[in-house]
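In the previous chapter we treated chains in isolation. Here, by contrast, the input contains two separate entities that must be folded as one system, with a combined length of 590 residues.
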Amino acid sequence: MLHILRDSRTMVIVLLIPVILMFLFGFAISTEVNNVNVVAVAPVQNDYIRGVLSRISENQYMTFKGCIAPKDIDATLRQSRADAVMVFNHDRPVPKIELIMDASNTTVAQSAAACLRGIIASEGGGMTEFVTMRMLYNPQMKSSYNFVPGIMGMLFILICAMMTSVSIVREKETGTMEVLLVSPVRPMHVIITKLVPYFVLSCVVLAAILLIAYGLLGLPLSATVLNVVWVSLLYILLSLALGILISTMTERQVTALLVSAMLFMLPVIMLSGMLFPIENMPEVLQWVSYLVPARWYIDTMRKLMIEQLPVSGVWENIMVMGGMTLLIVIIAIRKFNDQLE
Amino acid sequence: MDRNDRLAISVKGLTKRFGAFTAVDHITFDVAGGEIFGFLGANGAGKTTAMRMLCGLSFPTEGKGWVAGFDIMKQSEQIKKHIGYMSQRFSLYDDLTVVENMRLFAGIYGMKTSDAKLRIDELLSQLHFGQERHAIVGSLPLGWKQKLSFSVATIHRPEILFLDEPTGGVDPITRRQFWELIYSSVNEGMTVFVTTHYMDEAEYCNRLSVMVDGQIKALNTPKELKLQYGVDTMDEVFRRIARGATRSE
C-alpha cells in the first residue's frame, strides 16, 4: 500500500485519468453537432426565406453568418468560414432549396444536414421535396476519408513520442545510458541515433498509410500529395521532439509510458478533432485543444487530403506546428543538458 | 615520456555539493600510472559521486582534478577518450549478443573495424568464451556478464580504468578470475581505479584510500594501513576507520 502511495507520479495519473475521462465524456465531448455555421445565398428575400433564416438563427446548434454571393460559395466552405451553405434558387413562395455541405468532417456534415432539413420542413409545411443536397469534398460521405488524417495524427504520436521516450528511458533504467555518457560520444549524438530508427519507421508507416489511402480507399490523388508528405514529416519531427521531452522528464519506462498516454494519447483521441468535432466543445476545452499538436496536424491533413486545398490555405497551421517543434526541441535540449549537470 | 612516470589521476580539494548536502568534501589524492588504486568507503560515503566527477559524468562544485593529464573542469571530452568505465550495475545491451555488444562499443570508441576485430578476438579468448560469443547477453550468468563488462570497458585500451564495485554479487571463484583480468590489464600498462566492499580484494590493491562521510580518512598501502592501526586484517582497519561515520544508507 505504501509502495503505491510513494510512487506519486503514477498515483496522480491513475487517479486523474478517470476524473478527466468522466469530465470529458460527461460534459465536454459530444458527437452531437452544435456551432454549425450557416450562410445563405438568397438573391431575393421573401417571407418564407426570412422565416427559415430566423429559425436558423434561433436554433441553438446553428449560427447564421449572413448572406453571400453565389460565386463565393466554394471559397467560404474551403476556408471553413461556414460548414453549410443554403442556396435559395427561385423567388417562388416556396423556393427550391439547395444545401451545400462541407463533408470533409462526416459527422458534422451529416448531423447538420439532418438538422437543416428539419428546419426547412417545419417552415415549409412538408415541402422538403424541393431540397437537394450536395456534399462537397467527400461526395460519398465516406467516413474512411475522415478517419485517415485522425489515424495519422495518432499513429505518429504513438510511434514517435511514445516509443522514442520509452526506448531512451530504457537506456537510463538499464544503466547503458551511463556507459554511453562516459564514452566520447556526445550526448546529443546518442539521442539522435536513438531517433533515427523511429524516424525511418515513421516514414515507412507514412508511405503505407498514403498508399492505402490513395490506392485502396480511393482518396482523390492530386498535387497536394507532396504537401501531405512534407507536412507529415514536420509532424513526425514534432512527435520525436515530444518523445525526447518525455524521456528527459522520467526515469522509468512505466512512467514514460503513462506520461505519454496521459499527455499525448488522451488529448489526441479526445481533443484533436479526430473523433469529436472541436467546434462542439466548451470554449475552455477548445483553448486546450490549441495546445494539442495533433489538432493542427489533423486539421491540416483534412484540408490537404480531403478538401485538396493548396498549401497557402493551411499556412497558419504549418507555422503553428513549426513553432511548436522549435519550442519543444529547445526545451528538450535544455532539460537534457540540465540532467547531465 | 613514459606514461608510468606521469600521474594518472591528481585531485586537489575536490568537492561536490547537492544543495546543503556535501557528498564529497575536499578530497585530495594522486594515483600513479600503472597503479591499482582501491577506493574504499561505506555505502553513501561519496565514492560513486567522486568517481562520477573523475569520469566527467558530473561537474565538481569546487576543487581541481586531472585525469590522464586532462583537466576535469574543462577537458571532460578528452578524458572520456582515455578512460574505461564499468558501472556498478550491469550495463551492456541485454538483447544483443556478446560479440555485438563488443562491436558496438568498439564503434562508439571510434576503433577501426580491422583493429576492433583483432581486439575482440583477443578479449574473447582471454575470457575463454567459445560458443558463448554468439549468446544473447541477457541469458548469461552474472559472473560472466561482469567479466564481459570488464572486457568491454577495456576494449579501446584506455589509460585508466574505473571500476565501480565490479564484483558485487559475484561468487569467490569468479571474483578471483576477475582480479586476474585486472592484473593482466595492469601488466598491459593500464591504471586501475576500483571501488569495492570486499576487504580481501582491497589487499590486492597497491594503495588504498578510505572515505568516510565524503572525506578521505586514510590513504596508504594495505600493509602500512594494517601497521598503522595495529591490526592483522584490512577488515579490521576498515572497521576502525569507518567507526566514526555518521552517514549511512
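Chain A touches chain B at residues 174-176, 178-186, 340-341 (CB under 8 Å). Chain A has a mean pLDDT of 80. Compare these points with the single-chain example from earlier in the chapter.
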